[in-house]
Amino acid sequence: MVIFNCLRGKLVRFNLVLLLWNWYDYLFFYFLIPVILTAFHVLPDDLKDYLILWPLNPTFAGLFFSSYVHLNFNHFLNNLLSYLFVIFFLFNFETDRRLFYRVSSLLLLLLPILSSLLIIFLPAFRVPGVYFLGFSVITSGFEGYSIYAVFSYLRNVLKFSFNSSFILLVFSLNNMIVLLNLKIPSTYQFIMISAFTILLFLFVYSIYVNRLGIKQMMYMLTLNRIKSLFKGGCLVSAYRLLLILLVIKYLFSLPVLIPPEILIGGSVINIFSHYVGYTFGTFTPIIIGSLKWNYQIPSRIYWRGFYNIEKGKLVRVWVILHGVASSFMKVCYIF
After folding, report:
1. What is the pLDDT of residues 101-143, one digit of tens each?
2. Which residues contact 301 (CB under 8 A, 6 or more apart)?
3. Hey, CA dihedral for 276, 174, 248, 97, is it positive or negative?
4. Closest to 80 in 3D by CA, of 44, 21, 47, 36
5. Model confidence at 167, in pLDDT bands (50, 70, 90)?
6. How far is it, in rounded angstroms, from Cα 251 to Cα 173?
7. Per mean pLDDT, which range of 84-98, 239-253, 305-319 is the poorest?
8. Strands, E assignment, 160-314
9. Measured distance CA(240)–CA(229) in Å, rounded
10. Quick one: which of 277, 266, 257, 264 has its CA closest to 67?
């Protein structure tokens, strides 16, 4: 504990957000998760075959554990390094530790099952000999979550006037880039043009809504302010430069997750799971953030004789319904 506190005190020079994290946060995300992935990777091939998701013959184990096993060492190493980089990024930009744990729990536990169920029920994947595996669906979820982390940092640390539609701005821009890069048959051109038009509308709308925050950000990009970011020594400057490069990488990660060529080295990139993970990771923190229910009883229900022992349950039900309705309206307001 003492050693960690000393190290954390030195890390503050690089980024104040690092004060948010405790030693067990690093232990779980930087050590325990990689150990779990390594343990699954060294399992016997016969057991791995049972954990793989076969859409034509799915098992309950394959629904979840297929996201934790890998085809070979290169597949395992690429996903492990991608995971460690995105966790490093989130530790430097996420400003709500409790939200981070809630979203991470859903990404690690719910997302694999959701992705597997979608694959099973889509006829396009129900082909003999086709199987799915790999941690990339979860890594894609964390990369989608990184958009929210950047938004949280811009709003809470740098005090830029952004609202949640900033996430929609980045998401729509990434999707437009993907549509422009994909090789789509002429029979689907109308669908692509329609989707692109909708995304363009959302992009322009999000820019208009966040115009004040964008002006503030452009003002910060002046030469003198950029120079001020690199004060504090070579190590601090290199660290902050790395963070800037990672911001660019993760704000525009979808075109990398869904490349134009999906066949690499004889293996097919599972772009469907990548997109499901990315979308899930992008919007889950918004929804969870909006579900912070206010359990304080609204003043207008304090009428005579209503709140007593016999009717206490009714009051609690009313408060929960009020929280659900309020949360739904907040989510709808984003769009």
Report:
1. 999 999 999 999 999 999 999 888 888 888 889 999 999 999 9
2. 307, 315, 318
3. negative
4. 36
5. very high
6. 10
7. 305-319
8. 263-264, 267-268
9. 7
10. 277
pLDDT over 60 at 12, yes or no: yes
Pairing mode, strands 267-268 and 263-264: antiparallel
CB 136 within 8 A of CB 272: no
Segment 16-29 shows an average pLDDT of 89
Least confident of 155-164, 220-229, 242-251, 267-276: 220-229
Neighbours of 183 (CB within 10 A): 7
Length of the chain: 335
Angstrom distance (rounded) from CA 61 to CA 43: 14
Comparing 32-36, 55-59, 209-213, 259-263, the range with the smallest average pLDDT is 259-263
* Residue 14 DSSP code: T
Contact 36, 68 (CB under 8 A): yes
Cα 15 → chain centroid = 21
| Lookup result for tokens 């929804």 | 287
Note whether 132 and 63 are within 8 A (CB).
Answer: no
Q: Are 335 and 286 in contact (CB under 8 A)?
A: no
* Rounded distance between C-alpha atoms, residue 3 and residue 13, angstroms: 17
The token pair that represents 324 in the structure block:
């659900």
H-helix segments, 52-122:
60-65, 73-93, 97-105, 111-121
Q: Partners of 53 in the beta sheet? A: 132
Mean pLDDT of 281-285: 95
Q: How do the domains of the chain map onto residue ranges?
A: 2-290, 292-335
Q: How far apart are CA 191 and CA 181, in angstroms?
A: 15
Q: What is the pTM of this model?
A: 0.83
Q: Which has more pLDDT, 194 or 261? A: 194
